[in-house]
Amino acid sequence: MDATADELAGVVDLFGGLTRSELERALAEAAYRADGQSVDDAALGAAIDEAVESFALVRHDPADEGAAPTTDGEALLVAGPTAFPAVPEHAEDVPHILDIDRRRVDRETLGKTARERVIAAADEAIAAADEERIRSLIDVSYDVEAWAPVDCTDERTRLEDALEE
Questions:
Q1: Is there a single domain that holds both residue 28 and residue 57?
Q2: Is there a contact between 83 and 56 (Cβ–Cβ < 8 Å)?
Q3: 21 falls in which pLDDT band (50, 70, 90)?
Q4: In what order do the strands lie in the sheet with 76-79?
Q5: Average pLDDT over residues 90-101
Q6: CATH number of the domain enclosing 61
Q7: Which InterPro entries did the record assign (predicted)?
Q8: Is 14 in the same domain as 31?
Q9: What is the spatial distance between Cα 42 and Cα 113, in angstroms, rounded to a whole number?
Q10: How far apart are CA 12 and CA 154, in angstroms?
Q11: Per residue in 103-134, pLDDT tens?
Q12: How many domains does the chain have?
């Protein structure tokens, strides 16, 4: 089973947030339900990394909200600002199978986390003079603002200035 970034976000969204290991387990369960298919662990790991890189998933530490850790210290992955969550076929029953309670994540705290990621990604893209990534991050900055109550104007201006140099 190969999952797209939007499908990863769809599975995560079923729960409100999942740890990486829980997401891997959820996808393995969905693949098994789809005629006994299996998940290629390396491909899944790469797909999760790419989804985080593209802001389809956002890595979030519940301790940032002052919440009691429910994930044994592991960060949650939540559907991010660039995702169009889509639940893959055979995954709709996974919440009942895994018996994980729905998690609520504070959107403001999550927005701050995403904004910090935009800043870090912008630093890397500007340092590498990666025009394609800079253009992508300008779009992401708008997505983050629409998705959470944060302002990315300064980051966007910095990215735009880098393109003009």
A1: yes
A2: yes
A3: very high
A4: 18-19, 76-79, 57-60
A5: 85
A6: 1.10.10
A7: DUF7109 (IPR055533)
A8: yes
A9: 27
A10: 30
A11: 888 889 999 999 999 999 999 999 999 999 99
A12: 2
- Residues 60, 123, single domain; the answer is no
Domain final position from 42, 74, 98: 98
Phi and psi at residue 40, to the nearest 5°: -80, 110
Q: Are residues 56 and 118 in the same domain?
A: no
Cα separation, 131 vs 153, in Å, equals: 18
What Cα–Cα distance (Å) separates residue 158 from each residue in 15, 114, 144, 165?
35, 17, 16, 11
- 113 and 66 housed in the same domain: no
What residues make up the domain containing 92? Answer: 5-98
> What is the chain's alpha carbon radius of gyration, rounded to the nearest angstrom?
17
Amino acid found at 146 = A
pTM of the predicted protein model? 0.89
| pLDDT for the residue numbered 68 | 46
In the block, which residue shows the tokens 């009691």?
A: 68
Average pLDDT over residues 44-57: 95
Tokens of 59: 């890595």
Residue finishing a domain among 71, 98, 125: 98
CB 102 within 8 A of CB 61: no
**In the chain, what's the furthest Cα-to-Cα distance?**
54
Q: How far apart are CA 21 and CA 16, in angstroms?
A: 15
